Amino acid sequence: MLTLHKSAGDGASAGLLAKLVSPLQESWKRLVNIGVHQELTEWQGKRVRLLNGISSVTIAIYAGYVVVFFNSPDWLTFRICLAGVFLNLPPLVLNYYRRYDASAYYCVLSVTLLCSFIAVARRYNGVEYYLISNSIVAMLFFRRFWKILLLFLLNVAAYFAVRYAMQYVKPFLYVQDSAYFYNANVLLFFMTLFFVVSYFRAENFRQEQLLSQKNETLGQSLEHLQNTQAQLVQQEKLASLGALTAGIAHEIQNPLNFVDNFSEVGMELVEELREELAREPISEKRRHIITVLLDDLAQSQKKVNEHADRAGNIVRGMLLHSRTSRGERQPTDLNALADEYLRLAYHGLRAKHKDFNATLTTDFDLQLGPVTVVVEDISRVLLNLFTNAFYAIHKKASQLPPSAYKPTVSVSTQRAVKGVLLRVRDNGTGIPLEVIDKIFHPFFTTKPPGEGTGLGLSLSYDIITKGHGGTLTVNSGAGEYSEFTIWLPESRVP
């Protein structure tokens, strides 16, 4: 294993360099932000910083020439450079007093005048080439096309005017030993042109990137809006269907109650007839015939009462299915909620079958964090899944000897791609392959008549998919196991 160690000398050198660079960075930051305030737009702030930066760099270049030519016999160049220092101070002052347009005009026009004068006065200085780069610099400072065009034409006219004047005006600021400035100025011209074009190119790429990000954000917002609109339309349809279902169920409930009540009254009347028959002096043959008829009538009334109760359960399930949830979503500990309703469903089954025992296995993700859900609705889903799981293992346990079968219900949670997963698995009777596609249909049940309404899984499916934007899927092996998987999207998981 290779280990790299940084020496103390390297650390000291880095610290010393940071101490030297930090004041320079702070000074540069203060210079380029002269006159910048919060009311400026992004482009205006960028323009002010660019003006300050150009002026500061130009002043630094002229100041360097001043130092170089301070003890030189070329006093003319020294004075020109010293004048250049003071001529580039006004943009900083104008920006400080928030005269931004004046600062921009000064920056462009001062270069035009100064370069034109020096080019004519010294001829072989090469300064006239700055007029070419200066003609496109206006694009950095102004947005209106007529201003850019005016300054561009002004610099082009100045360039050709200077080239024409150089043929007739004798250089009166020319120094014999300063001809080498021509190459230096041409080099600086190309560098200036390069940096201006590079700036435009970098800004174009930046704007393109920003536009792509905004387009992506708008696309996501549009997709979210379309999904929300689809959910609202679906909820409106479900609300209308729920209202219709509720109305029908209420209308059915009233006559169904009469059937149920009169069947119970009928059974009571049969018992009263039995008592009266016992006191009547009739032959044994007739008594036997009447008793058989009463037994048939009692059996008929009992069946009517049983099926009326079953129909009543179906109607109550329809009312529950059509009810619109008004619960609010709130951050919830899904692990604790699942564990609570797992125990509740288990003890509910144990209350009916005291000799039944099962193994409960939990594998909760401790880093899951709170999940934003409608607690009442998710509780209903969990209770339904756990009740079905315990029903399946109890049914299988009743068919096998205790030594051959160990009833088990497992619950697990985990983070998934863009969401959260919750799995409920049992090793019970499973679901036949030919009916597994119908398992979430309303009124479809695999339980015997009277033991299920076929609305529990349908209601759970609607709560997860339409109420929370998730998915509810099932995987099963007939006679071996069933596994239900709930996925809640990340938008519901803060």
UniProtKB/TrEMBL annotation:
Ranges of residues in domain Histidine kinase: 247-492
Transmembrane regions listed in the UniProt entry: 50-70, 76-97, 104-121, 149-168, 180-200
InterPro entries: HATPase_C_sf (IPR036890), HATPase_dom (IPR003594), His_kinase_dom (IPR005467), HisK_dim/P_dom (IPR003661), HisK_dim/P_sf (IPR036097), Sig_transdc_His_kin-like_C (IPR004358)
Recorded catalytic activity of this chain's protein: ATP + protein L-histidine = ADP + protein N-phospho-L-histidine
Keyword Kinase among UniProt keywords: yes
GO MF annotation: an example: phosphorelay sensor kinase activity
Main enzyme class: transferase
EC code: 2.7.13.3
Superkingdom of origin organism: Bacteria
Keyword entries, A-Z: Kinase, Membrane, Phosphoprotein, Transferase, Transmembrane, Transmembrane helix
Name the UniProt record assigns to this protein: histidine kinase
